[in-house]
Amino acid sequence: MNTHVPPTVQAKHDGRRKASLRQWFDSRAGGGVDDRSDRIDWLRAGPFIAMHLACIGVLWVGVSTVALSTAIALYALRMFALTGFYHRYFSHRAFRTSRTVQFVFALIGAACVQRGPLWWAAHHRHHHRYADTAQDPHSPTVHGFLWSHAGWFLTPAAFLTDESRVPDLVRYPELRWLDRYDIAVPVALAVALYGLGVLLHWLAPSWGTSGGQMLVWGFFVSTVVLFHATVTINSLAHRFGRRRFVTRDDSRNNVWLALITFGEGWHNNHHFYPGAARQGFRWWEIDLTWYALRLMSAVGLVWDLKPVPAWVLHKAEG
Ligand SMILES: [Zn+2]
Ligand SMILES: [Zn+2]
After folding, report:
1. Which ligand minimizes its atom distance to the CA of 277?
2. Residues 201, 50: contact at Cβ < 8 Å?
3. How far apart are the CA of 89 and the centre of ligand 2, in A?
4. Which of 6, 34, 278, 288 has the most neighbouring CB atoms within 10 Å?
C-alpha cells in the first residue's frame, strides 16, 4: 500500500502542458520515479474500462421489462451481499452465521466484480485503520475524488491481498478459492445471463429479450451502476454530509448515499462504531441492510447481530 504522501499538489500545478488522463492518474498515485507499484496498471485496468464501454451496447440490444427487472434485481441482491457480507460480516464480523450461508453470500459477493472476500475485507480493514491519512488507499482528502472513486484499486500494489489483515478468513479454502479465481464467478454470471436471454427469446418471444440484451443490462449495466454506487462510500461519503461524531477521519452521514447503498451512507456513524451490524443509529436513518439482516436473523440464517451500545445511541441523540 501507499506508504508515503504523494507529491500530488506539485504534480498538479507543475504541468503547464495539458496532461493526459493517464498522466493525471499517475500524478494522483504519486509513486516514486522508479516505483510503479502504486500507479495504475493500464493493462489490468482494461477489463474495468471494457465493462463501461460494453454498456453502450444498450443502443444495439434495446430494452425490455424482463432485462430491466433482472438488472435491478441483480443490483439489489449483489448490493446486499456487499453491504451485509463483504462489509459488515467479512470485514467487521458484526454477526455470525453458518459456513454454508457464509459461502453463499461470498459467492454472490464475488459476482459483483469487486474481487474476492479476502481482498475486499483486507483493504477495508486497512481503510479503517488509516482512514484519511496518507496510508489510506482511497481517501478523497489525500488523493482527490477521482482516485478515491475509481483509481486506487487499479494499481499493482492494490491487486495484492495482505493476508495478515484477514487471518480469520484465510482459514477457509473456499473463500481463498473465490479470491484466487475472482474472474470465475463474474464470467459464469455473464454466460448464464446470455444463455437465459437466448432461452427466453426462444420460449417467450413476446417478452422481447435476447442473449445480448440480458447480458448488457443484467451484467454490464447492473454491475457498472453497482460499482459506482458502492465506491461513493469511499469518495463522496468522506466529503459530503453531516458529521455527527468527531472521528479521526473525514467520514460523513449522507441520506442519499444511504439509500443507494442500502444503509452504508451512515458512514460517520460507522467510522465511529464500526463493530455494529447496524449503521443507521436513529429510527429514521434508513438502513435496508440492517432490516434484511434482522429478517435473516428471525429465520435463523444469521445470529448474534452486534448491537449499537447504549452509550453510542445516547451520543447519537445528542
Ligand atoms: Zn470510510
Ligand atoms: Zn467498514
Report:
1. 2
2. no
3. 10
4. 278
